[in-house]
Amino acid sequence: MSERTPVRAVKAVIPAAGLATRFLPATKAVPKELLPVVDRPVLQYIVEEAAAAGINDVLLITGRGKTSMVDHFDPHPYLESRLEAKGDLTRLAAVRRTSDLAEIYTCRQGEPLGLGHAVSYAESHVGSSPFAVLLGDEFTEEDSPLLPGMIDLQAQTGGIVLAFIEVPDDEVNRYGIASVQTDAGFGDDIVRVTGLVEKPPIGEAPSNLAVVGRYVLPSGIFDAIRRTKPGSGGEIQLTDAMALMLEEGTPVHGIVYRGIRYDTGMPLGYLQTIVQLASQREDLGPAFTEWLRDFVGSLPAENAEGNRA
């Protein structure tokens, strides 16, 4: 019998139908995914991450008031002609690049009923092939990519591949946490997952490995989602569907990510991301960091209780 020919994921799904209530009122009319990080929206960083991993087909799961996400990746002939006429070739190239990153498709989730429910909308688009899921509020540093290794591992195993970060023991109750075996046979930072638990109480977590927003999934996930009952918050949870597949024998592995993960899902993380990336820019970094040092140095000191000194 011939060995199984590995099938690599070449499509990505970005669930982006949420209401983004943490950013109201800014997100009343502007999708959270289009909030700018310096001069690019969050969503563009994520599509760039997918494109750099060899994915050129991206499906956005959108909702009410989110059509502008698709517009961002469309060509804009009038804007391009104006920039060309002005000789602003740098911005012209940046604008054109957005429409060259990938083929962007969209479908509409009528009501956000959980991550598993959102992913289920991708079935007709991805068919029987494995695919990546990238959550729409986080991305990784360009020089330390995560997704290519996840795609390679999924092609080898045919199962589910997750991304983990190590979190402090007193924060495990904020995440989905995995129980793992470290002798997975694939090298350092790759573990075999033996169980998943959502937001365990502090002191009861099986590890400090937290699931973060990158998944590479086989097409069997769609049947598992159909058989998954509403869980946390009365929603169809992707974690529950993956746990079902694990129980039924699907191999589940994880890669422990050691690079920088930018999490823009909360206002604090969003602001931190802007500061970090602005500081790294050749055109902005030197002047920005000089101002930032002066600004931080001018702030009133605080005592241990958090009161102004």
UniProtKB/TrEMBL annotation:
Gene Ontology BP annotations: UDP-alpha-D-glucose metabolic process
Q: Supply the alphabetized keyword list.
A: Nucleotidyltransferase, Transferase
**Which EC numbers does the record give?**
2.7.7.9
The record's listing under Pfam families reads: NTP_transferase
| Class of the enzyme per the UniProt entry, highest EC level | transferase
Q: What InterPro entries is this protein classified in?
A: GalU_uridylyltTrfase_bac/arc, NTP_transferase_dom, Nucleotide-diphossugar_trans
| Gene3D superfamilies reported in the protein's UniProt record | Spore Coat Polysaccharide Biosynthesis Protein SpsA, Chain A
| MF terms (GO), sorted A to Z | UTP:glucose-1-phosphate uridylyltransferase activity
Q: Known catalysed reaction(s)? A: alpha-D-glucose 1-phosphate + UTP + H(+) = UDP-alpha-D-glucose + diphosphate
Q: Which residues form the Nucleotidyl transferase domain?
A: 11-277
The Swiss-Prot or TrEMBL record describes its family as follows: Belongs to the UDPGP type 2 family.
Q: What is the protein name given in its UniProt record?
A: UTP--glucose-1-phosphate uridylyltransferase
Source organism per UniProt: Rhizocola hellebori
